[in-house]
Amino acid sequence: LQVKKYRVLFLRFTHEDLKAQKYLMGGIEQVIGLHKDVLMPKFAGILKLLYDMDILEEKALLEWADKVSRKYVSRELSQEMHSRAEPFIKWLKEAEEEESDSEDEDDNDLEIEYDDRAKASPLREQPKKTPAKPAVNHDEDGEDDLDIDAI
């Protein structure tokens, strides 16, 4: 998929513009309609990719999912796309509900203290440590033994 390659271009058109995102969804519907055999099975994955890359926002996807439209493709094709996207849309709604629940819980316990004065601490240079060489104890029998206490 070339979405990753052209992500910046997509973002220039759709960033924080719900109407542009809806038009993009219409264009995607048309492309899916043209290459139905290849792209229809991948439709939910395409939507997730566009969502993960911040090209389509959650609100645009949920509004698209609420209404089967025949503006860009036939109603039957649009219905099939909606049914293919249903698991992704369900996941999106559940994630939104969990997020709002956790925000409600966190807000009750959370107290933020803000201090606008920067805490300045002087930088100190650390002395460089040279690695110690292991001490070797020479015995009468000619073997090199490692002195554990010197480590």
Automatic annotation (TrEMBL):
Could you name the domain of life of the organism this protein comes from? Eukaryota
Comp. bias (Acidic residues): 95-114, 140-151
Q: Where is this region: Disordered?
A: 92-151
Tell me the ranges covered by the W2 domain, including all copies: 1-102
UniProt cross-references to Pfam families, sorted A to Z: W2 (PF02020)
Which CDD domains does the annotation name? W2_eIF5 (cd11561)
Cellular-component GO terms for this entry: eukaryotic translation initiation factor 2B complex
Annotated GO MF terms: guanyl-nucleotide exchange factor activity; translation initiation factor activity; translation initiation factor binding
The entry's protein name is: W2 domain-containing protein
Q: Which organism is it from?
A: Timema shepardi
